[in-house]
Specification:
Structural class: alpha+beta
Strand content: 15-25%
Distance between the termini: 16 Å
Oligomer: single chain
Number of helices: 12
Shape: rod-shaped
Length: 625
């Protein structure tokens, strides 16, 4: 009986050490696999009828510290979020350029201002007009390019969100599949460690995209939820995620609304109830949504605010000038000499003119043609003003409203029209126009008669919803930086730049060849401080020049990017340290495995020796019998 027991014990030792050696070889084969956790064969004494009967080893354990693993996943989520954010901030910073870069926005604004000063100093030099227009178109083109780049980055973020959702679905499918296999494997006594490794790898990848909650069930399945408790995985069940990618994004598109969020189990009918975007906090997805819907729109707001200030300041001064083009004909299809930029939905709406506005016709030499006309101060309407201009022109032209409600003036080819406000010195002679442009029942003040109608604008901006340009106080300003341009007829004929205003004493006015007060005032406008509103997720309220605000935008971008880089460096180091600790605990140690291999080999040899000796002893017993 005792020899049989010895033989049985030795045979169990052979089997267990053989399995241990096989497991050691698997560990060594995965020495450089970061997604593999070291496996250990758990050995137990086999007891039959209260008597030790060798050893058994049916369980393979993984060397995983679950608390460390959870910390690592949390920090991985944070690292992925900061890294994604940093990528977008860096690209925005590259768009703004640096202080030393002469193509930076502030430098282009200064170049435009310098060329206006040269034009004002020497209006007789033709090349100054071309230089001024070239600098103006370079500046507006740079603003447009930056605005378009911002929208391209939003499209990139939207594309990355779509790809992230697809990747998440792939990882969820892997987890759900393994959850479905593991209970059956365990019931049959088959090893499940490698399946658990693969599932852990999928969970690690999932954690890069968003914060998750998870727990392991008594069936060794892992259930996963969002931070708000929405189920993503329940055993072998996988939730369905959907997202509608957008191929074109403009500045006035936002979420929720025209841009989509992530929906859970929507069944093809996405709505607010199944939108889980706000519950997917942290990770790459949070950074992508923040870039698309908050950070990049903030940059657009900064560019729009600067563009509107640039437009309004330049146009306010430029409209004082009398250097309007000669008439282009009065037939129905002829282009208008003066085409206003302000659109009136109701030309009978009340308006008040603060001071008289004189108007004269000039010949090609700047001398008056005929007498002076006056639009009297006081209460009036756009339609009444249009009638007064039309009456003054007589046979020399016509004034009317186009299909969009914009005032346009068509002149005979031998005259041009000029306005002269008689306002106070406090408004630099501009007449103050009171008018409710935004429909809030409260009148706003606009300086300059011609400026109010936009009859002699230099810079125009688009309304993204219509073909009508956006002017101060009218319609939404969002996105105007994407289309700010120099008026096309001025680009084609730079001499149309307003360089001087009417001089003389009414009713006798003239526009002499040396008049340059408007060009000098245009240059001076770039030296005036303007109040810029604070932008959410952008610079605070500030009072500075146009180029100064360009510098503030650049500085804010640089500071934000640098702070993000510091966070990224810290988070990378922290996550790296946790990963090393995990590797030390769960990774394969070659020295340890080689030492174990010798132990198992010796134990195997010892068990074989016991079998050999037991066999010899049994032979002796048989011979004695």
């Amino acid at each position: 009986m005792s020899l049989a027991l010895a033989l049985n014990n030795a045979l169990s030792g052979l089997r267990v050490n053989q399995s241990a050696l096989a497991l050691t070889s698997t560990n060594l084969a995965n020495l450089n696999n970061p997604n593999y956790s070291r496996k250990t064969l758990l050995q137990e004494t086999q007891v039959i009828a209260g008597v030790g009967s060798g050893v058994t080893a049916d369980t393979i354990a993984r060397s995983v510290n679950t608390l460390l693993q959870r910390d690592f996943r949390d920090e991985t989520t944070r690292l992925s979020e900061i890294s994604t954010e940093n990528n977008y901030l860096n690209r925005v910073q590259q768009m703004f350029g640096t202080v030393a870069n002469k193509n930076a926005l502030g430098d282009l604004i200064n170049s435009f201002a310098d060329s206006l000063e040269s034009l004002g100093s020497s209006p007789e030099i033709t090349s100054n007009y071309f230089t001024t227009i070239n600098n103006a178109t370079t500046l507006t083109g740079r603003i447009q390019g930056m605005a378009d780049t911002v929208q391209d980055e939003r499209i990139r973020a939207d594309l990355e969100i779509n790809q992230a959702v697809r990747d998440m679905e792939s990882q969820l499918a892997i987890i759900a599949e393994i959850n479905g296999i593991i209970p059956g494997q365990a019931a049959q006594g088959l090893p499940i460690g490698d399946l658990e490794d693969k599932r852990d790898q999928a969970i690690n990848t999932l954690a890069q995209y968003t914060d998750i909650q998870y727990f392991q069930t008594d069936k060794n399945q892992v259930n996963i939820l969002t931070t708000s408790g929405r189920t993503l995985i329940n055993g072998g069940y996988q939730a369905d995620l959907s997202f509608r990618q957008t191929t074109l994004i403009t500045a006035n598109e936002s979420y929720p609304g025209t841009l989509d969020g992530i929906h859970l189990n929507d069944g093809g009918f996405p709505n607010a109830a199944n939108d889980i975007t706000t519950s997917l906090t942290g990770g790459k997805l949070a950074a992508l949504f923040n870039a698309r819907d908050t950070m990049l729109p903030s940059v657009t707001s900064q560019l729009d605010q600067m563009s509107s200030a640039l437009r309004d300041e330049v146009n306010r001064v430029h409209n004082r000038g009398a250097n309007t083009p000669m008439g282009a004909g009065t037939a129905a299809l002829d282009p208008a000499t003066l085409h206003g930029s302000r659109a009136f939905s109701n030309t009978a709406q009340a308006m008040t003119i603060g001071s008289n506005v004189n108007m004269v016709l000039l010949d090609i030499n700047g001398a008056m043609v005929g007498g002076m006309g006056t639009i009297a101060a006081g209460a009036t309407t756009p339609a009444t003003v249009q009638g007064q201009i039309n009456t003054f022109l007589g046979a020399n032209g016509t004034a009317s409203f186009d299909a969009n409600g914009r005032l346009e003036v068509k002149l005979n080819s031998n005259v041009k029209l000029a306005f002269k406000d008689t306002g106070l010195a406090a408004t630099q002679g501009d007449s103050v126009i009171q008018f409710d442009a935004n429909g809030d029942t409260v009148n706003e003040n606009y300086n300059g008669f011609s400026n109010f109608f936009g009859l002699n604008d230099l810079l125009i901006t688009p309304d993204l919803a219509t073909t009508v340009p956006v002017v101060a106080g009218q319609t939404v300003q969002t996105g105007i930086s994407s289309g700010i341009i120099v008026r096309t007829d001025v680009v084609a004929q730079p001499s149309y730049i307003s360089r001087g205003s009417l001089s003389g004493t009414p009713p006798n006015y003239t526009l002499g060849p040396g008049n340059n007060d408007v060009a000098l005032s245009l240059a001076g406008a770039f030296e005036q401080n303007i109040t810029f509103n604070g932008i959410t997720n952008g610079p605070d309220i500030s009072s500075t020049t146009l180029s100064g605000y360009a510098g503030i935008m650049l500085s804010y971008s640089a500071t934000t990017t640098q702070a993000s880089q510091s966070n990224l460096d810290f988070q990378s180091a922290l996550t790296g340290d946790l990963q090393i600790k995990m590797q030390n605990e769960s990774g394969v140690n070659m020295d340890e495995e080689l030492a174990n291999m010798i132990i198992f080999q010796n134990a195997y040899n010892a068990a074989a020796k016991v079998i050999q000796i037991t066999g010899e002893m049994l032979d002796t017993v048989i011979e004695l019998a």
